[in-house]
Amino acid sequence: MSDIISIDTIVKAHEMMGLSSPKHPLVSVVMPEDFKMTADFRGAKIVPGFYQVMFKLGECGTLRYGRNSYDYEDGTLIFTSPGQSMQLEESEAELESVHEGWTLAFHPDLIRNSPLVDKIERYNFFQYEVTEALHLSDEERKTIEDLRDKIVVEYSQNLDRHSQNLIIANIELLLDYCLRFYDRQFITRSNLNSDLVSKFERILKGYYQSELEVQKMPSVHFCAEQLHLSANYLSDLLKKETGKTAQEHIHLFVMEKAKTRLRHGSESISEIAYSLGFEYPQHFSNLFKAKTGYSPRAYRNMA
């Protein structure tokens, strides 16, 4: 099967999995014992219209979660956002792995009128790759599962005027704990991350190595692809290790090259801008002033 299957609502997701209607149309937790997949989705791209927090126990099926020797082994969390495609492999083992764990799903409409709607974009892990999953300790797993259970309790009982706020509050708290646990994972992976920072710097140097005019500045996405990481994960990793995002690193690197050319070359400011990958010299001048406090011309005249 190679179709693209859009699942816009949690109600539709329940139908496709052979489950009874969800107790709340905008939020649901599916446990292993609930899973009753009635269709074969092997090879299909599934595009949910809602957020998912998926827990896997160990390494299920053929998926690899990027676990290193110093990561915890008491479970893995994977996050997906609305519109992010998922694909099951063709094997029976991979299909079986789908229901070896639990999934919390919540629709964007659930948080539409809450403060969480403005905060959700800060949880960059919803844009991470599967290999950048969160590996939990036993205590961390218990914390997450306790919050999961509180969400289930809230939507399973008779809804009242407090229910929606309490459901959203527990989802937000769960995501905040995931943010904390990811920070811990960045720390425990410090040696690996330091190596990635060095590789990132070498990518930037190599990009301009020939000193020939380039078509555009290196993007965060380009650098992340070279390192086999997602752009958000690379930025978060660099922020934790150096205090600067990937975009800030790229800008600072390019500005250092610009300083050298302004001081020691005879190129015009426009020629420098184009050679560094700027489409418009004015963009280069604005960025240079923002980063150094001087216009390119003023900086050159200081020599």
For this entry, give a set of tags:
303 residues, three-stranded mixed beta sheet, alpha+beta, Jelly Rolls, 47% helix, Arc Repressor Mutant, subunit A
Describe what this molecule looks like in 3D:
With 303 residues, the chain is α+β, with helices and mostly antiparallel strands. The chain folds into 2 domains: 4-188, Jelly Rolls, CATH 2.60.120; 191-301, Homeodomain-like (Arc Repressor Mutant, subunit A). The chain is built from 12 helices and 8 strands. The strands form 2 sheets. A 5-stranded antiparallel β-sheet has the order 2-7-4-5-8. Helix 4 (138-156) runs antiparallel to helix 5 and helix 10 crosses helix 11. The chain starts with a strand and ends with a helix.
How is this fold's topology laid out?
Elements: E1 4-7, H1 10-16, E2 27-30, E3 45-48, E4 51-56, E5 76-80, E6 86-87, H2 92-97, E7 101-106, H3 116-119, E8 134-135, H4 138-156, H5 163-188, H6 190-207, H7 220-226, H8 231-242, H9 246-264, H10 269-275, H11 281-292, H12 296-301
Parallel strand pairs: 1-3
Antiparallel strand pairs: 2-7, 3-6, 4-5, 4-7, 5-8
Helix pairs in contact: 4-5, 7-8, 9-11, 10-11
User: Strand order, biggest sheet?
Assistant: 2-7-4-5-8
> How much strand?
5-15%
Q: Give the helix tally.
A: 12
> How would a crystallographer describe the biggest sheet?
5 strands, antiparallel
Shape: elongated
Overall strand count: 8
Distance between the termini: 66 Å
Return the structural class. alpha+beta
- What order do the SSEs take from the amino end to the carboxyl end, as H and E? EHEEEEEHEHEHHHHHHHHH
Radius of gyration: 24 Å
Poorly predicted runs: 90-95
CATH architecture of the largest domain: Sandwich
Average of the residue pLDDT scores: 87
Would you tell me which CATH topology of the largest domain applies? Jelly Rolls
> What is the percent of helical residues?
40-55%
How many domains is the backbone divided into?
2
